[in-house]
Amino acid sequence: MTVETKLPYDKEYIDQFSKERNEPEWMLELRLQALEQADALELPKPDKTKIGKWNFSQFKHTATGAAIQSLKELPNELQEFLDQENAPENLLIQRNHSVAYNTLSKELKDKGVIFTDIFTALQKHDDLVKRYYMKDAVSIDEHRLTALHAALMNGGVFVYVPKNVEVEVPLQTIFWQEDPEVALFNHVLVVADEGSSLTYVENYFSHNEKEATVANVVTEVIAQDNAKISFGAVDNFAHGTTAYNNRRGVAYRDATVDWALGQMNDGNTVSENITHLVGENSLSNAKTVSVGRGDQTQNFTAKIVHFGKNSEGYILQHGVMKDKSTSIFNGIGKIEHGASKANAEQESRVLMLSEKARGDANPILLIDEDDVTAGHAASVGRVDPIQLYYLMSRGITQEEAERLIIHGFLAPVVNQLPIEAVKNQLTQVIERKVY
Amino acid sequence: MAGSTLEIKNLHVSIEDKEILKGVDLTIKGGEFHAVMGPNGTGKSTLASAIMGHPKYEITEGSVLLDGEDVLEMEVDERARAGLFLAMQYPSEISGVTTSDFLRSSINARRGEGNEISLMNFIKEMDSALDYLDIDKNMAQRYLNEGFSGGEKKRNEILQLLLLKPEIAILDEIDSGLDIDALKIVSKGINRLRDENFGCLIITHYQRLLNYITPDKVHVMMQGRVVKSGGPELAKRLEAEGYEWIKEELGIEDETVEQKA
Ligand SMILES: Nc1ncnc2c1ncn2[C@@H]1O[C@H](COP(=O)(O)OP(=O)(O)OP(=O)(O)O)[C@@H](O)[C@H]1O
Ligand SMILES: [Mg+2]
C-alpha cells in the first residue's frame, strides 16, 4: 500500500467549504493560513512511536447525516450511551457532520449557557468563538496535524457557561461517525467563565472496521478564574480510523479542570491530554484508561504543566494491553520557574495480558523551580497470579477472576465518569475489547 | 455417610526445588474438627496452600482425595466448587473489586450457571452474615481487603466461609491479629457451621482459639510432617509446656523444614 502524503484538498476547496457554511471571514483566513502552514510543518513526534507511515491523508472530508426526531431511532449501540430512564436534558448528537439532535434545558438557556454545534456557534457567537478558538490552548502551527485540523475542521461543539452559572446536569455529546469513510476534523471548545462550573461528557463512535479514514480531533477546555470543569469522554473509533486526539485544558486562578477519559479506539491512535495550570491555586486531576488489542499501536500522553504558584496536578493512567498491541504511556509533570509550592504527582500502570503485547510507561518530571513537591510511580506487569489464586480459591473461574481483576484495575477511572450511562457503556466497551 | 472426606496421603511438597512437606498423612471427615499446631516454619501453611492449589507449590509425591476424587488434578476453582475452602493466613488485596461483587461472584460460581442467587437474596444473606459477625456494612462496598486491618481481613475470610458453606474448610491462623472480642465472634461464626456435614482443619498457634472451638483431634507438625497426634488435651499441654518435650521425646533438634529428620 502506498501512502498518499499530499492532500486532495486545496485552497479552492476550503474557500468553497467555508463559504457554503457562511463562516465569518476570520475563520476562512485562519483555515487558509493553516493550510499553507501544513505543508511546511512536520508530523508530531510522539515519544517512541513512529507515525510516519500512518494514514493521515486518505479520507472523505464531508458527509451529512439525517436528523432524528426521537432517540429511539438511534441504533442500539448508541442507545447505550444514554440514560434510558430519563432522556438527557442536554444532549447533542452529531451524525457525520450534521446535527441530528440537540437539546438544552430551558433553565440553562435562560441563564445564557451555550451548547451548540461549532458552525452554529460561528454564526451566532462569533466573538466568543473567535476569542478562544486555537488561541489559549492549542496553536495552529504546533505541527502538521494541528494545522490540518485548523484547515479542514468539519464538525464539533461549542460550550460556554457564563460567569457564576453553575450547571448541575451534565452536557452530553455523541459524535457518531456513521459514514465509514468520512473523517472527523472535530473541534470541541468548552469555556467556563469566571466562577462557573459544568460537567461535559462526550462519546466518539464509528463502525469502519476496514475502511480507512482519519479522526483529527482538537479539544480546548478553558476554565477562567475560579471555574470548575469536569470533562469525561469515551473514544471508541473502529479499527479503520487513524486517530489523533488532542485534548488540552487551561486553568486560570483557582480554577479546576478534571479529566476522566476512556481511550478505547481500535485503530492506531495518538492521544495527548495536556493541561496548563496557568493560575495560582489551579488544579487538575487527569485520569485515563486505555485498552489495546489486535495489532493497534497507540501513544498516550498525559501531561500537566504548572505555571501558577500552588498549582496541583495529578495524573493517573491505567492501561490494559492484549494480543499484539503496542502502547506507550507518557506521563509528564512539568513545573515552570516561578510555580513555587506546585505539586506534580503521577501514576502510570500497565497491565499486560499477552506475551506478544508491548507496553511502556515513561514517567517524566521536568522541574524548573526549587520549592515544589513531585512524585511518580510507574509499573508494567501481568495479572498477579496470587490474586488470581485467591479469587479462584472461592470457586471463581480463571476467566472470570481475570475479568474482575481487569475491571478492578480500570475502576478508578471508570468510576470517575459523571454520567451513569456512559460509565456503564465504558464498562461494556472494556468488556468487548478485553474478551 | 454424612459430609465429605478429605484424605491427605504421604504428601510431599516443594517450593523452588526445596522440599518442605516430607510426607503428610491426615484424614478429615465431615463432622470432625482437627487442629494443626507446630512451631513457625514447619510447613503448616504449605500444607494448606498445597491442598488448595497455590501456584508456587509443587506436589512431588502423594495424593489428596476429596470423597475419592483426585484434588491434585483439579484447578483451584474446581477444588473450591468441589467443596474445599481455605481461609488464608495472608489474604490478597484486590483493588477496584468490591467485597460485595466478589462475594456474589463466588456464591454464583458455586451455584453454577442458571442457578444464580437473586440480588435480593444475596443482599439478605450478606447482610445477615455481616450482622452475625459484627462487621460494619460499609465493608461490603470497600475494595476487597484493600486497606483492611489484620482483624478485618480475618473476619472477611470468615464472612466468605459462612456465605460459601463449604464441605471442608481449612483455616490458616484465622485467630492471628484478632482482639478478644473478634476472636469470640469469629469462633462463633465457625461453630455455627459445626455439624456432621462440615469438616474443618484449624491451623493455630494458640490454645485460646481452641477454648472456643474444641477440636476432636490435635496434630503437631515439625520438619514438614505430622509428628504427633492426640486429643484436645495435647493442645493444652503445648500451651502449658511448649514444644521442647515433643522434640525430646522424638529426638528432634531442629524442628524447621531445613533439617533432615
Ligand atoms: N514462597 C516461598 N518461598 C520460599 N520459601 C517458602 C515459601 N513459602 C514457604 N517457604 C518456606 O517453607 C517453610 C514452611 O513455611 P510455612 O509457611 O508452611 O510454615 P508455617 O508452619 O505455616 O509457619 P508459621 O507458623 O510461621 O505460619 C519455611 O521455611 C518457609 O520459609
Ligand atoms: Mg503459616
UniProtKB/TrEMBL annotation, chain A:
Residue span(s) of domain SUF system FeS cluster assembly SufBD N-terminal: 13-172
GO biological process: iron-sulfur cluster assembly
Name of one Pfam family that matches: SUFBD_core
Residues in SUF system FeS cluster assembly SufBD core domain copies: 177-409
Protein family (similarity comment): Belongs to the iron-sulfur cluster assembly SufBD family.
PANTHER family associated with the record: FES CLUSTER ASSEMBLY PROTEIN SUF, UPF0051 PROTEIN ABCI8, CHLOROPLASTIC-RELATED
NCBIfam families for the chain: sufD
Protein name (Swiss-Prot/TrEMBL): Fe-S cluster assembly protein SufD
Native organism: Virgibacillus salarius
Source organism phylogeny: Bacteria, Bacillati, Bacillota, Bacilli, Bacillales
Protein's gene: sufD
From TrEMBL, chain B:
Keywords for the protein's UniProt record, in alphabetical order: ATP-binding, Nucleotide-binding
InterPro entries from the UniProt entry: AAA+_ATPase (IPR003593), ABC_transporter-like_ATP-bd (IPR003439), ABC_transporter-like_CS (IPR017871), FeS-cluster_ATPase_SufC (IPR010230), P-loop_NTPase (IPR027417)
Pfam family, one: ABC_tran
GO terms of molecular function: ATP binding; ATP hydrolysis activity
Domain ABC transporter: 6-248
PROSITE patterns: ABC_TRANSPORTER_1, ABC_TRANSPORTER_2
CDD domains to which the protein is assigned, alphabetical: ABC_FeS_Assembly
Record Gene3D superfamilies: P-loop containing nucleotide triphosphate hydrolases
UniProt cross-references to SMART domains, sorted A to Z: AAA (SM00382)
Family of the protein in this entry: Belongs to the ABC transporter superfamily. Ycf16 family.
PANTHER family from the UniProt entry: ABC TRANSPORTER I FAMILY MEMBER 6, CHLOROPLASTIC
NCBIfam families registered for this protein in UniProt: sufC
Name this polypeptide is given: Fe-S cluster assembly ATPase SufC
Organism expressing this protein natively: Virgibacillus salarius
Gene for this chain: sufC
